[in-house]
Task: structure prediction
Amino acid sequence: MEPFSSDWISFIITGLGTLFLLGEVLVNMKGFFGLLGFGFITVYFLSFLEPGTFILMMVIYLIGLLLIIIDGKLLNDGTLAVIGAVCMVLSVGLSSPNWTAGLYAVIGVVIGGACSLMFLKVFKRRDMWTKLALVDQLTEDKGYSTMNVSYSELVGKQAVTMTDMRPVGTIKVDGAEYSAVSNGQWIPKDSVVKITQVDGTKILVTVK
Result:
C-alpha cells in the first residue's frame, strides 16, 4: 500500500484502531469493534512496512493488547497493562516513515485508548475490571445479603497497609490482616487508610 499523503492521517488511523480494539476488550460488542480496530491497524502498518516487518510490528502491537487483557482479567495491578501500552506505542512509532508521522501515531494510540473508556457509558461492559473497581456490588438495598457480619463491621475503621497496594494488597486492622483493594490508587506500605466499603469479603480502602 502507498503511504499516507499527510502525516496527520496516522493519528486518525491509529486512534480509531486503538479505540475499537480496546473498546472490544471493555464492552461486549461480539467482535464487531475488534474487526474494525484490527482493520484500521492493519491499514496503518501495511501503508509503511514491508511484509516481514509488518508481521513483526503487528505482533508487537497485538502482544501489547494481550498484556492489557491479561492484566485486566487476572492480575489487576497495572504492571502488564503498562508494558502492553508501551508495546503498542513503540510498534506504531517505529513503523512510521518519519518522526512527525510517528508522533501523530503515538498520540493517536494514547487518545484512542483513553476515548475507548467512553464505550463503558453506552454499551454493556465485560466483567474484566470488577475486581479492581468493585463494580458489581451485591448490596442489601438491592435484595442481597452477602456481606459477612464480621466484615461489615470494618466499614469506617482505620487500618494500616502491610504491603504496597497496586491496587490490591494486605491491610491490618484490630490486629487482624485482610486482603483489600484501593480502587485504582497506588498506596505504599505502612500507610494509614480508611475502610470505606465492604462487598462480601472485598474491602475497599482509601488514603486517610
Summary: Residues 51-75 form the longest helix (25 residues). The chain has a mean pLDDT of 83. The chain is about 50% helix and 15% strand.
